[in-house]
Amino acid sequence: QTWIKSIGHGDAEQLYKSIQDTRIIAPPTDCLVPIGPKALLAGLLKEVYAEFFAASTRPPTVYRGNPFQIEAAIAFGGDLARDESTRVLRFANRVPLLYQQSSCSSFKSVIDTSWKNYGMSQPRGSLPVGPLVVFIHMVSVWVPFTSESKEAIADYDEIRKEMKLALQDCGRKLGTYLRRRKRMAREAERRSAFERYIGEISRSCGAITGSDVDKLYKALRKQARRRTEEADAMLDDEGRVIDDGGRLAS
User: Fold this and answer.
1) Nearest-5° angle of CA 188, CA 189, CA 191?
2) How far is residue 133's CA from residue 86's CA, in Å, rounded to a whole number?
3) CA nearest 64: which of 164, 148, 142?
4) What is the pTM of this model?
5) Using CA atoms, how far apart are residues 156 and 64, in angstroms rounded to an integer?
6) 144 and 93 Cβ atoms separated by less than 8 Å
7) Which of 42, 104, 149, 168 is least surrounded by Cβ atoms within 10 Å, i.e. has the fewest?
8) Could you tell me how far CA 220 lies from the centroid of its own chain?
9) How far is CA 250 from CA 19, 150, 227, 240, 242, in A?
10) 237 has a pLDDT exceeding 70
11) What contacts 24+ positions apart, CB below 8 Å, involve 117-121?
């Protein structure tokens, strides 16, 4: 109840420090209704012909007293163009944002994410290049648009951070999938090299030891397949290994 004109510099410093040390109760976040990872994946699977999908929903948080929540999903490979920049799909409260892409926090968060860590090619300060589609959705009671036209989300630090964390979560899943696919290709190359010389080795060993060449050939072929069995692995559209019975392997 002190008059502002009577507050000196020392009082203002003490007041500022007290405000910083005071813990304010966060607003309720049960009013937010996100799309959810399953619905995100189902939507991308319906519209995008890709080979790998991943989605992430961040826990609710607050910016300037307003609760909000960020969701992200990606689609990779398939029929997507491999020599073009990534396509970014921006949504706010389930409404697509079609214009002013470069001014949107969603677009900037995609550029800020280091996609090279997840096996993608990315020029400095640009979108990653490759068969990738990125979906970002912000749900909030008050979306901070850059203008009255509601075409782009304002660039707040809290919002950009949550978007980047959601994208990094999807990127880690993509990186795991790409590394697994490379291992499968490498094992297939090893098997091909083994099988190229198994016939000659079998005949040579048979000539030296007198063993059955056909039996030795089958044994070596079986050993080659056992040591490169990862080349036969089947992956689902989320990059998980499927066993012979059609179930997800542990």
Assistant:
1) 65
2) 6
3) 142
4) 0.74
5) 9
6) no
7) 149
8) 41
9) 50, 45, 20, 9, 9
10) no
11) 117/171, 117/175, 118/171, 118/172, 118/174, 118/175, 118/178, 119/174, 119/175, 119/178, 119/179, 120/174
81 residue type, one letter: A
Q: Round to whole Å and give the CA distance between 36 and 58.
A: 10
Parallel/antiparallel/unpaired status of strands 66-76 and 132-140: antiparallel
Q: What is the pLDDT of residues 29-84, one digit of tens each?
A: 778 888 988 999 998 888 888 889 999 999 998 888 889 999 999 999 888 888 88
Question: Which residues, including other chains, have CB under 8 Å from residue 117's CB and lie 6 or more apart?
Answer: 171, 175
Q: How far apart are CA 42 and CA 40, in angstroms?
A: 5
CA distance 111 to 193: 41
Amino acid at 175: G
User: Pairing state of beta strands 132-140 and 87-92?
Assistant: parallel
Is the pLDDT confidence value at 247 over 80?
no
Rounded to 10 deg, the angle between the 105-112 and 157-209 helix axes is 40
Among 185, 170, 166, which Cα is nearest to 235's? 185
